[in-house]
Design a protein that fits this description.
heterodimer, A: mainly alpha, ABC transporter involved in vitamin B12 uptake, BtuC, globular, B: about 500 residues, alpha/beta, Rossmann fold, 4 domains, six-stranded mixed beta sheet, about 35% helix, about 25% strand, ATP-binding (chain B), ATP binding (chain B), ATP-binding cassette domain-containing protein (chain B), ABC_transporter-like_ATP-bd (chain B)
């Protein structure tokens, strides 16, 4: 059941990509456009990582849009107004994000308030602070080094004829690393006498992943090279994917969301875990704030508006359960990409903004309805 | 006063796989207080649910005649309009509504315009409160009232519906002595006004004090109805009726060889988390290695509360007393500390407190000791599966793979997952709260076998159970708990069900 639901997401993703690729006569998959999608939605994906972890534990964060605005504003004041180096601005932004996360974590974990209320208050609070920090005006532009975070590329480092060899090299290394990783897992499974898929099937799976990644890299290499944000995003996805799946801490997040009382009675330090996942959300919102301010080359009082809803939608479309206990980082990324491809594809087709909103709303609704339908069926077989 | 108000004849109620009631009959006369007695799980509450229409007509066999006419209730509304009111053990009041609003909830006093007539609501409520002897303002939210007063509000609510037969399920279980006495007085006054009462109670002293007749139910069958006016109808007589059966011989044999003391508590006192009363009062007990110790007590005696307060203060507040492991005083202020000190507690309610039902067997087995499978915080997933597989083999958990969702397993197999989880923490003392609740006979035998294997390995086991035969069949020594106090300690060789039941129903006064 769970496998079907997970793979259902991937199938839906492939179908949506195929649909828009056909409708846009292939423009969707063109090198320039793929680069665009990555640049345009990277900060939503970063937010979705933190959001899905909160949702797994049974919480939510409505304030991430405001945190993105506040952290970007702090960075802009330091770098643009006070002429600090770009790194100081970026680090300060992340630090402010962490502090905001700790603030939320305190109220949720130690005072015992519902996250919905705490972060709703945070949404207002930090939006207001953003306006105060910026004194109600937009600040721009950032120096070029800061802009590189979101719009910079690593290319030309080792040359290439009409394409960027460095991008392909990095992709090849990533694929190689992936292949070695899954092969070692396979060996360990055999050593522990667990069932493994047949060797040809295993090879086919690795080759498929390699083909998709290399195609994507090939396309990027023919555009502007390897976006720096893509590297940031890849590192975060891999790190958080492993942390949620393979660490004691990650498992405790699932335990809390699956059955809070049982988790407590199993010795899970629920308050501590809840506190740290909010701190983590603040950290990622700070990172997203840096990326967003870098991309928009400035800080605006209204920045990040409604980002929380995109991040929440990504998590739920990606298979997270409303009641908690279920969800994956990779699923949330696919959920976010589904939204990204749909938005981008509809923009390419010239669909009106209003219609786009209607369609995205329906997709979110149907995704969660599908989740509930599945659960009911699973419940009926019990 | 001899005419019959309620007659239930040949009531049989089946649940999937279980017969809860078999050919039960009950006859209640006009204007009497009729007590219903029986062990936990004997079928008392089921019988009352049949009567009040919670289980609608057609879902059971048999005949109900109320006031001489056959009745077929399709739901609670039907039985209410016939004049039957039921007050459940868990009170069904809305905490933030006022006393008056609660009394007339679903039965609102409305004016001509269709809006609620608040003057009439409050005036009528005040009159009803006077009838039940509750001196409170009718606009007070019920959350501000104690349990005893809330109980009276429930009765006022029933009276507002012109009730003729009032059913009370364990009305005094959560009340202190003063409130209990007050409630019993009220029941007498209601009887004098012609309102018939059925009272389910475990407190035999109350029953002998107030009931006109008593029906004893055992294993879903009526044993007998006693006329409480007769001199023969003593507490001992009722106990005999409640337990009068032979110890079934499905408990595996075990050689008992207790070793040194493992767990000891002294003067253990626990207060209710919100109400100002003690749930456990100065309890003391010891458990030795290789020994199974039973805790017997009726519902509300404080068994689970005692166990959970020991287990990292998971229940209650103002916990005081001393806790020793292997003779050394320890502190177990959190569950993690308790586990670290070698204590494990397997809950009576595995669905709500024991298992993550949406996760797989593997994750549930490792949940309480994940640290043992991790290095620097990273879990070795392969080792984890190996551990889960080993549990599956040892415990004979019937599942396709350890990656199956626990929620899809049967009750017995879920219980084995709970046991696996706690055994993986490698405890010195394992507290099992109702370890065989809701599982079939075959799985019960397996659980008993597992318990025997554990004590053979030198572990200490505490079994909390409502089923006296189970305690007598598995334990070496049994403590009895009544109203939060340890009222007795018997080696199993000297204990009978009658002795235990007498100790379990001992009141505080008798004990003092």
């Amino acid at each position: 059941m769970r496998n079907l639901r997970q793979s259902g997401i991937y199938i839906a993703f492939v179908a949506i990509v195929a649909l828009f690729a056909v409708l846009t006569d292939g423009v969707l998959l063109s090198p320039g456009n793929l680069t665009n999608i990555v640049l345009q939605y990277s900060y939503i994906l970063v937010l979705a990582i933190g959001m899905v972890i909160l949702i797994i534990a049974g919480h939510i964060d409505l304030s991430v849009g405001s945190i993105v605005a506040l952290t970007g504003a702090v960075s802009a004041v330091l770098v643009i107004q006070n002429g600090q180096p770009w790194a100081v601005g970026a680090l300060a932004a992340v630090a402010v994000g962490v502090a905001v996360g700790a603030w939320h974590g305190f109220w949720v974990a130690y005072v015992g308030m519902p996250a919905f209320i705490v972060t709703l208050a945070g949404m207002l609070l930090f939006r207001g602070l953003t306006l105060q920090v910026l004194d109600n005006v937009s600040l721009s532009p950032f120096p070029p080094e800061y802009q590189k975070v979101a719009s910079g590329f690593l290319n030309g480092l080792i040359g290439g004829q009409g394409y960027d060899a460095f991008t392909l090299l990095i992709a090849a290394l990533a694929v190689g690393g992936y292949a070695v990783g899954v092969f070692r897992t396979r060996l360990a499974r055999i050593r522990y006498e667990q069932p493994v898929e047949s060797f040809p099937l295993f090879v086919a799976r690795v080759l498929l992943v390699a083909a998709v990644v290399m195609y994507f890299a090939w396309q990027l290499a023919h555009a502007r090279g390897l976006p720096i944000v893509l590297i940031i995003l890849a590192v975060l996805v891999i790190a958080y994917g492993l942390v949620t799946k393979d660490t004691v801490f990650g498992r405790q997040v699932y335990a809390i969301g699956g059955n809070l009382s049982a988790a407590m009675l199993s010795g899970v330090k629920v308050r501590k875990v809840n506190f740290w996942i909010f701190v983590n959300m603040g950290f990622l919102a700070g990172v997203a704030g840096v990326i967003y301010s870098s991309r928009s080359n400035g800080a605006q009082p209204g920045a990040g508006n409604m980002f929380e809803l995109d991040a929440i939608a990504a998590a739920f479309i990606g298979g997270a359960a409303v009641a908690g206990g279920v969800g994956t980082v990779v699923g949330a990324m696919v959920g976010g990409l589904i939204m990204a491809v749909m938005s981008n594809g509809m923009q390419l087709l010239g669909v009106e903004q209003s219609t786009q909103s209607v369609i995205k709303g329906l997709v979110l609704l149907l995704a969660v309805a599908f989740d509930i339908y599945n659960k009911r069926r699973a419940g009926a077989t019990r | 006063m001899t005419d019959v108000l309620l007659e239930m004849r040949g009531i049989t109620k089946r649940f999937p796989g279980v017969i809860a009631l078999q050919d039960v009959s009950l006859e209640v006369r006009h204007g009497e207080i009729h007590a219903i007695c029986g062990e936990n799980g004997a079928g008392k509450s089921t019988l009352m649910k049949v009567l009040s229409g919670v289980y609608p007509s057609g879902s059971y066999d048999g005949e109900i005649r109320f006031d001489g006419r056959p009745v077929h209730f399709a739901g609670i509304r039907d039985s209410e309009s016939a004049g039957i009111g039921i007050i459940h053990q868990e009170l069904a009041l809305v905490p933030y509504l006022s006393v008056a609003e609660n009394i007339f909830l679903g039965n609102e006093r409305r004016g001509r315009n269709g809006l609620i007539d608040w003057n009439r609501t409050n005036a009528d409520a005040a009159q009803l409160l006077a009838e039940v002897g509750l001196d409170e303002n009718v606009v007070t939210p019920v959350i501000q009232l104690g349990v005893g007063k809330q109980q009276l509000v429930e009765i006022a609510k029933a009276l507002s519906k012109d009730v003729r037969l009032l059913i009370l399920d364990e009305p005094t279980a959560a009340l202190n002595d003063v409130d209990s006495a007050h409630l019993l007085d009220l029941l007498r006054r209601l009887r004098d006004r012609g309102i018939t009462c059925i009272m389910i109670s475990h407190k035999l002293s109350e029953i002998t004090a107030i009931a006109d007749s008593t029906t004893v139910i055992r294993d879903g069958r009526t044993v007998e109805t006693l006329d409480m006016g007769s001199a023969e109808s003593t507490q001992e007589r009722i106990i005999w009726g409640m337990v009068g059966r032979d110890l079934e011989s499905f408990y595996p044999e075990r050689d008992s060889a207790p070793g040194p003391e493992v767990l000891r508590i002294e003067d253990w006192t626990v207060w209710h988390p919100v109400q100002p009363r003690k749930v456990v009062d100065g309890a003391g007990l010891t458990v030795r290695a290789g020994e199974v110790v039973g805790i017997a007590g009726l519902m509300g005696a404080g068994r689970t509360e005692l166990a959970m307060s020991l287990f990292g203060r998971s229940y209650g507040r103002n916990i005081s007393g001393r806790l020793f492991m292997h003779g050394k005083q320890i502190r177990a202020r959190t569950v993690a500390e308790a586990i670290g000190n070698g204590i494990a507690y397997a809950t009576e309610d595995r669905k709500h407190y024991g298992l993550n039902l949406i996760a797989d067997v593997r994750t549930n087995v490792s949940a309480a000791a994940l640290g043992k499978l991790a290095r620097a915080g990273w879990v070795n997933g392969h080792e984890e599966i190996k551990v889960a597989e080993a549990s599956r083999r040892d415990m004979n958990i019937k599942t396709r793979t350890v990656l199956d969702t626990v929620g899809t397993l049967s009750g017995g197999n879920q219980q084995k997952v709970v046991l696996s989880k706690w055994l993986f923490t490698d405890p010195d003392v394992l507290i099992l709260d109702e370890p065989t609740r809701g599982i079939d006979v075959g799985a019960k035998y397996e659980i008993y076998t597992i318990i025997n294997r554990l004590v053979a390995q030198g572990k200490a086991v505490v079994v909390i159970s409502s089923e006296l035969p189970e305690l007598l069949g598995t334990c070496d020594r049994i403590y009895t708990l009544s109203a939060g106090r340890i009222t007795g300690e018997l080696p199993v060789g000297e204990a009978t069900q009658e002795d235990l039941m007498a100790l379990m129903t001992t009141d505080k006064e008798d004990n003092a």
